[in-house]
Amino acid sequence: MALAQPAPGGVPAGRTGPRTAAPGDTRTGPLRGTLATTACMETLQVGYLHAVVAAAGCSLSQPFPDNGIDWHVSHGAPEHLVDDEITVKVQLKATTQIPPGPAGPTFPFILDNAHLVKLARTPVAVHKILVVMLVPRERDQWLAAGPDLLGLRHCCYWTNLAGHPVTGRHRTTVRIPTARIFDDRALCEIMTRVGSGGTP
User: pLDDT digit string (tens) for 72-88?
Assistant: First the structure.
């Protein structure tokens, strides 16, 4: 059986290419699947989380059934004071409404009140953080790959909402600090603080 040879850029020759547009369709690029954009955004942010967790040397688990929190991230180190392995709960959100590199010290994000109450509860046995990913509106801008880089756009920001009040009737706007970019170093620092008996 003959196998298609990879074309430059890693795409097998003859298998993909420019879309064959219907009359009046001006879109270009590969033929993407019809899965809802919001579902694809969820998958993209999970990929981002996996990459950060891997680089930070953490483990990742998904609660089953889901009780309003997406992921549990655990970090083991003999230097921790409260236990040799500590866990932080992570709630993921994504939005296309905020442009990349938002100006100012914070940007707004709206949460349903029921969800905010869960994230804001204090005191807790296991700390929680909210991680918000800013995603381009066009799917062809989400990812770039090359010989030395796999890039996801744009990035995630994190915050600890413990003690945050509910201010809206059904939903509340929270402020996400732009200085808190969620990457492997940030995750290690969060885990170090929690492992010392502090907060994220």
Answer: 999 999 999 999 999 99
